Amino acid sequence: MKVAFATDDGIRVNAHFGQSPMFAIYNVTKRGGELVELRKLPEIQHQDESGKIDSRLEAVEDCTLIFIMQIGASAAAKVTRRKIMPVKVPLGSSIEEQVKRLVEMLQGKPPMWLAKVLRAEEEEEADGIHG
């Protein structure tokens, strides 16, 4: 599954969803996680809150999870409507550590929130094959 991390340095989760200058995109499986790309957002002057949220949503629309430091209520609603699960982590959490924890969860018995996300992802893939 693809996972996004809100970051300003590509190393730590240290950004609020609406202000994140970029997202580190990882592919995470039971076997491990690897960096796919760093998606930098263009700097748009005088962009309103809705525009900031929408541009960030577009940047992570192919992801299943997004790790952030903070996310506002309206942004969280938009993210979850797109079937992306926001995951809040402490400021400055290492992306590598978060990836490692996620891999361990996938290898063991995933917590309820993650199991639900994985089920939804499997159903979408099945629909894509049969639809």
From TrEMBL:
Domain Dinitrogenase iron-molybdenum cofactor biosynthesis: 9-103
Keyword terms of this UniProt record: Nitrogen fixation
UniProt key word Ion transport: no
Keyword presence, NAD: no
Molecular-function GO terms, alphabetical: metal cluster binding
UniProt xrefs under InterPro entries: Di-Nase_FeMo-co_biosynth, DiNase_FeMo-co_biosyn_sf, NifX, NifX-like, NifX/NifY_domain
SUPFAM superfamilies, alphabetized: Nitrogenase accessory factor-like
Gene3D superfamilies: Dinitrogenase iron-molybdenum cofactor biosynthesis domain (3.30.420.130)
CDD domains per record: NifX
Domain of life of the organism encoding this protein: Bacteria
Pfam families listed in its UniProt record: Nitro_FeMo-Co
GO biological process, one term: nitrogen fixation
Homology family: Belongs to the NifX/NifY family.
Protein name (record): Nitrogen fixation protein NifX
Species annotation: Paenibacillus monticola
Gene: nifX
